């Protein structure tokens, strides 16, 4: 919110106490809200004064320019050529003299325009750097005309409000009360312990007929609008607002429109209470109904956009016709214009969640919706409505009808919270007395009741709806006492040795394994599309992912049920930028729907590799990643994870997103814990990536599995003996089958089985293949004898023949 220092100074003796804008902003930043900027509209401007147009005649060589004689001091008159259509003799105007600096750091110089000398410039506010979004519509074409009491030759700033200082605050969602001058005055009064003089204008008279004869109001559901009230003001004369009102609005970032609309915006800024004015005579019915919109109902809002509404939106309807989007924006069909004679003035509190949802869905965020979303002060709803009616009598000559028509009224009682002095000091680390605490709440204007020397009660007014529990009051105490005054102390706690849990240690160590094997860590979004969420599941199942009701984008609508799809997005990003070798892994959680409100969260690890793991060098070319390279990485990962069980890689062709001939499920003791393989070429095309291999493991299953004891084993000082064996087996026999058979009968001294040759083709029977292995034998405690190895090797040959039908070659 843009807060005017001069407006605050009307209600608080800031200048009198030497509190300057910069110091005030710094205090607010340390105590209440963030500060975006502190600035004055006249910063960087100079030599701009009040001028009086003494004479204005047409330019002899132009049909639209005027030659003006402008008095700029008691004893100096200069000639200025001006093209504004509203310049006239006798008007007081803004004059940028020769050498002046105006908006965008433009320097004004003497010049000739169509042969006539010009010694300055007559200015509109836009030329002084005021944004066109806040200058009055009535002044869009032409220069700014100053009031008659402006003194010639004086700097122009006080007459256009540019001598003010604007404090741009960034209000957090819990401090909606600070979106008003009233809220800022209350807070600053407490911060500086200053007496506030907030002026309210009570409605003096109601000279019209009964307002209840003019409108009837019904609210379909108390939740939609807990408070809804309306006044009727007749005989309104729509015109320009006075200068003081225009200046207040412009300095607050609001564009003046006309006196009726400007009054409602003034009240919004002053009290934080949005109001809406309907042209009473344009309402299709005077039976006002606050209700949910009909599905597909249409409404053209004040911005001239047709809105298609949903059943959860809230509308103000006249009869059955929607005339405003409640809490967000009015409808164009009932807007106040120059012909308006009677105004129906609305003040309400709408459900903040519903307002936020409709404003976000329609991308229609307004000053009103911002305040309704954060909360409205129930204490000032009627006060704001009455003051707006007062100003309509003063500035628009309106006649206020008798009474307020109430559609709904809810009670917002003050909250009473019991506090303990000792507890406050223990929490904050302070040594405040009960008297100190009571004084802080006096400054806040919170009523208190002392119970005993330690206990007391605090009555929190409804205007501070963000406070509900003792912790909230602790925060109020801390910020008013001063965060910088709170001593630095260590918390009182039991002595507990810190450290990671066993689960945390294993998960962190497992990441180092993958990094050591050449993969880089990636962190991708936990939200994805529904289609991608359902791909690459460790255990494929027909479930739908958890879907967000209001996603931020179409690419992030559902919680992920796998990690691989996020890594493939990362590979696509790199590939699009000509990075061909990418090796990534990610460890994180996936979210599997389990039938309740919350999904089942599982820790997974996944990897994705494309191109080569190692770059080419002078003596070796980097080979493209293949199934077996990635399988080796996974095997090493599982080995370091120390799972004590039988790990198998079983061919699988059931996953539509994976290559049917280059994919395997990973089993631990016959339980599926992951998968590995090549991404299907069609899926790769959809992701816009080259040939890529991936794996994903369910770490929950690995963490629950039995662990293998890891202990130091000395390298044997005795020599090893090797035997080579070549087998002719059926093509359906896998390497795993052969290795398992060898290990079954290999004996106590067999330490390694290495496949060094595979052959299929000519000179072999159809349906057969040749596999060649090296078997390594070693005794840790003695030198092996030849006959011991031969005996063990013979058992292996016999078992291979019997179990697999192998032919020893």
UniProtKB/TrEMBL annotation:
Q: The FDX-ACB domain covers which part of the protein?
A: 716-809
Per its record, the protein catalyses: tRNA(Phe) + L-phenylalanine + ATP = L-phenylalanyl-tRNA(Phe) + AMP + diphosphate + H(+)
EC number(s)? 6.1.1.20
Q: Which GO terms of the molecular function aspect are on file?
A: ATP binding; catalytic activity, acting on a protein; magnesium ion binding; phenylalanine-tRNA ligase activity; transferase activity; tRNA binding
Q: Which residues form the B5 domain?
A: 412-488
Question: Where mainly found?
Answer: cytoplasm
Q: Which keywords label this protein?
A: Aminoacyl-tRNA synthetase, ATP-binding, Cytoplasm, Ligase, Magnesium, Metal-binding, Nucleotide-binding, Protein biosynthesis, RNA-binding, tRNA-binding
Pfam families in alphabetical order: B3_4, B5, FDX-ACB, tRNA_bind, tRNA_synthFbeta
Q: Tell me a GO cellular component.
A: phenylalanine-tRNA ligase complex
Q: Where is the TRNA-binding domain?
A: 42-157
Q: Name one GO biological process term.
A: phenylalanyl-tRNA aminoacylation
Cofactor, free-text remark:
Binds 2 magnesium ions per tetramer.
So where does Mg(2+) get bound? 466, 472, 475-476
Gene3D superfamilies, alphabetized: 3.30.56.10, Bira Bifunctional Protein, Domain 2 (3.30.930.10), Ferrodoxin-fold anticodon-binding domain (3.30.70.380), Nucleic acid-binding proteins (2.40.50.140), Phenylalanyl-trna Synthetase, Chain B, domain 3 (3.50.40.10)
InterPro entries recorded for this chain? Answer: aa-tRNA-synth_II/BPL/LPL, B3/B4_tRNA-bd, DNA-bd_dom_put_sf, Fdx_antiC-bd, Fdx_antiC-bd_sf, NA-bd_OB-fold, Phe-tRNA-ligase_IIc_bsu, Phe-tRNA-ligase_IIc_bsu_bact
Q: Where in the cell is it found?
A: Cytoplasm
The cofactors named for this UniProt entry are: Mg(2+)
Of which family is this protein a member? Belongs to the phenylalanyl-tRNA synthetase beta subunit family. Type 1 subfamily.
What quaternary structure, including any partners, is listed in this protein's UniProt entry? Tetramer of two alpha and two beta subunits.
Indicate what this protein is called per its UniProt record: Phenylalanine--tRNA ligase beta subunit
- Protein's organism: Limosilactobacillus secaliphilus
Origin organism lineage: Bacteria, Bacillati, Bacillota, Bacilli, Lactobacillales
């Amino acid at each position: 919110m843009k807060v005017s220092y001069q407006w605050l100074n009307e209600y608080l003796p800031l200048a009198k106490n030497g509190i300057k804008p910069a110091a005030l902003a710094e205090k607010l930043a340390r105590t209440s809200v963030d500060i975006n900027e502190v600035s004055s509209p006249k910063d960087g401007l100079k030599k701009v004064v009040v001028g009086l147009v003494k004479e204005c005649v047409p330019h002899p060589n132009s049909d639209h320019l005027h030659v003006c004689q402008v008095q700029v001091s008691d004893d100096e008159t200069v000639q200025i050529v001006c093209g504004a259509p509203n310049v006239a003799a006798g008007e007081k105007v803004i004059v940028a003299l020769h050498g002046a600096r105006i908006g965008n750091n433009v320097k004004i110089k003497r010049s000739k325009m169509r042969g006539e000398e010009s010694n300055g410039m007559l200015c509109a506010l836009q030329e002084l750097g005021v944004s066109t979004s806040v200058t009055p519509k009535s002044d869009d074409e032409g220069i700014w005309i100053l009031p008659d009491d402006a003194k010639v030759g004086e700097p122009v700033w006080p007459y256009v409000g540019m001598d003010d200082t604007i404090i741009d605050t960034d209000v957090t969602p819990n401090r909606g009360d600070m979106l008003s001058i009233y809220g800022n005055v209350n807070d600053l009064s407490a911060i500086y312990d200053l007496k506030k003089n907030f002026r309210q204008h009570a409605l003096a008279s109601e000279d019209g007929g009964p307002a209840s004869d003019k409108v009837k109001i019904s609210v379909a559901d108390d939740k939609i609008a807990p408070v809804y009230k309306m006044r009727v003001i007749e005989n309104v004369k729509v015109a320009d607002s006075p200068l003081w009102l225009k200046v207040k609005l412009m300095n607050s970032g609001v564009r003046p429109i006309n006196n009726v609309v400007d009054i409602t915006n003034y009240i919004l800024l002053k009290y934080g209470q949005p109001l809406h004015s309907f042209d009473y005579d344009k309402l299709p019915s005077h039976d006002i109904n606050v209700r949910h919109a009909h599905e597909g109902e249409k409404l053209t809002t004040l911005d001239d956009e047709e809105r298609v509404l949903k059943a959860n939106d809230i509308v103000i309807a006249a009869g059955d016709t929607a005339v405003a989007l409640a809490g967000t924006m009015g409808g164009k069909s009932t807007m106040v214009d120059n012909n308006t004679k009677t105004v129906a003035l609305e003040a309400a509190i709408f459900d903040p969640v519903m307002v936020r949802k409709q404003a976000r869905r329609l991308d229609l965020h307004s000053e009103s919706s911002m305040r309704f979303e954060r909360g409205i002060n129930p204490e000032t709803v009627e006060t704001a409505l009455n003051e707006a009616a007062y100003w309509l009598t003063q500035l628009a000559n309106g006649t206020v009808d008798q009474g307020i028509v109430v559609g709904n009224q809810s009670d917002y009682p003050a909250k009473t919270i019991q506090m303990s002095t000792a507890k406050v000091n223990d929490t904050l680390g302070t040594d405040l007395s009960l008297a100190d605490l009571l004084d802080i709440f006096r400054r806040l204007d919170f009523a208190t009741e002392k119970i005993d020397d330690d206990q007391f009660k605090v009555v929190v007014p409804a205007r501070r709806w963000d406070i509900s529990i003792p912790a909230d009051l602790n925060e109020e105490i801390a910020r008013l006492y001063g965060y910088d005054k709170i001593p630095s102390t260590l918390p009182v706690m039991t002595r507990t040795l810190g450290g990671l849990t066993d689960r945390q240690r294993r998960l962190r160590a497992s990441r180092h394994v993958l990094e050591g094997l050449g993969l880089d860590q990636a962190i991708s979004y936990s939200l994805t599309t529904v289609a991608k969420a359902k791909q690459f599941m460790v255990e494929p199942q027909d479930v739908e992912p958890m879907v967000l009701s209001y996603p931020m984008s179409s690419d992030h609508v559902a919680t992920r049920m796998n990690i691989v799809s996020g890594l493939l997005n990362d590979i696509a990003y790199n590939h699009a930028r000509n990075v061909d070798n990418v090796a990534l892994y990610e460890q994180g959680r996936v979210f599997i729907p389990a039938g309740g409100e919350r999904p089942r969260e599982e820790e997974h690890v996944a990897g994705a590799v494309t191109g080569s793991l190692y770059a080419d060098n002078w003596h070796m070319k980097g080979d493209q990643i293949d199934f077996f390279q990635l399988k080796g990485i996974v095997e090493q990962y599982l080995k370091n994870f120390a799972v004590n069980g039988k790990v198998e890689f079983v061919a699988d062709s059931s996953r539509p997103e994976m290559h049917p001939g280059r994919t395997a499920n990973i089993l631990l003791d016959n339980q599926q814990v992951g998968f590995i393989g090549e991404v299907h070429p069609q899926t790769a095309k959809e992701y816009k990536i080259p040939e890529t291999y991936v794996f994903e493991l369910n770490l929950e299953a690995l963490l629950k599995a039995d662990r293998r004891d890891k202990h130091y084993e000395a390298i044997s000082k005795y020599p090893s003996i090797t035997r080579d064996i070549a087998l002719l087996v059926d093509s359906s026999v896998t390497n795993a089958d052969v290795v398992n058979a060898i290990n079954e009968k290999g004996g106590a001294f067999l330490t390694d089985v290495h496949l060094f040759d595979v052959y299929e083709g000519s000179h072999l029977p159809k349906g057969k293949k040749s596999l060649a292995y090296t078997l390594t034998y070693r005794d840790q405690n003695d030198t092996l004898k030849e006959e011991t190895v031969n005996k063990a090797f013979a058992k292996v040959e016999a078992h291979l023949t019997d179990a697999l039908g192998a032919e020893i070659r």
